[in-house]
Amino acid sequence: MDNSKPDPKSSKTKMSALNGAPDHESQDNFVEAKEPSELIFCLLLASAYLGLAKFCWSPLFLTHNWKLLLNVEGFFVTVASIAFLIGLRPYTAPSRLQLSSRGIKYRGPYWTQRKTVNWEQVANVYLSPELILVLYKPNLESKRIWPLAILSIYLAEREQVIKSFLKYCPIQPIIMKSPALVSWILFGLILFIVVVWFFYLLMP
Q1: Is residue 199 part of a domain?
Q2: In the prediction, which pLDDT does 143 show?
Q3: Largest alpha-carbon pair distance within the chain?
Q4: Which residue of 16, 30, 47, 99 sits 20 to 30 Å from the alpha carbon of 201, by its own alpha carbon?
Q5: What's the structural domain count of the chain?
Q6: Could you say which DSSP state residue 171 is in?
Q7: How far is residue 133 from each of residues 92, 123, 176, measured CA to CA in Å?
Q8: For the residues of 87-149, what is the DSSP string, one character each?
Q9: At residue 158, what are phi and psi to the nearest 5 degrees?
């Protein structure tokens, strides 16, 4: 006659297996890829603008127009600093995205605070290979809707991000057809504004 007592841990494991409950929550993680070529390009761009600042210093100094000197040199140094920080950012604060059956956890490329959104808060989801827009309610009882922009273009294996959203999202997402055209238009508009601002600074 066997008088040994059953192991409670073993019984709990068998019960979980019978109920089909997983030992841990399933989740997909995406981290920003680090491209050395992008870092080299940003360093070359920063060096070029610093070289322009050095080249323009003497002619501008001889004009004794201190406002023009400050604007032009400040522009070149500012652009060089921004290029350097953009190239260094993936190594200091990479973008991260976590999707699970509970919701979304995302830290963007240009802000360090992680944002958490549960699926019950989500109203609509718009998917594209470059940008994912999540409309959610900060409070379930509130009618106000806030956007969460996920820049999937920065993430490694970004083609798998859409599949992961379709896997975990409890509502039917809206897949955008041609986001690349919109992205290029926005990029061109920003570049045009920067060029106009630069020529405005050169005006006496």
Answers
A1: no
A2: 82
A3: 106
A4: 47
A5: 2
A6: S
A7: 25, 11, 10
A8: HHHHHHS--EEEEESSEEEEE-SS--S-EEEEGGGEEEEEE-SS-EEEEE-SSTT----EEEE
A9: -65, -20
Q: At 177, is the secondary structure helix, strand, or coil?
A: coil
Q: Which two tokens stand for residue 4?
A: 């040994």
| Residues 23-77: tens digit of each pLDDT | 456 888 888 878 888 889 989 999 999 998 899 888 888 888 888 888 888 889 9
pTM: 0.61
Strands 96-100 and 103-107: antiparallel
**Per the domain annotation, does 43 fall within a domain?**
yes
What pLDDT was estimated at residue 103? 92
Q: pLDDT band at 178, cuts 50/70/90?
A: low
* Assigned token pair, 130: 């470059």
- The pLDDT of residue 6: 47
Distance CA 89, CA 39 (A): 9
- DSSP SS3 for 24: coil
Q: Which of 54, 71, 92 is the last residue of a domain?
A: 92
**Cβ atoms of 119 and 148 closer than 8 Å:** no
| DSSP result, 33-75 | ---HHHHHHHHHHHHHHHHHHHHHHHHHHHHT-HHHHHHHHHH
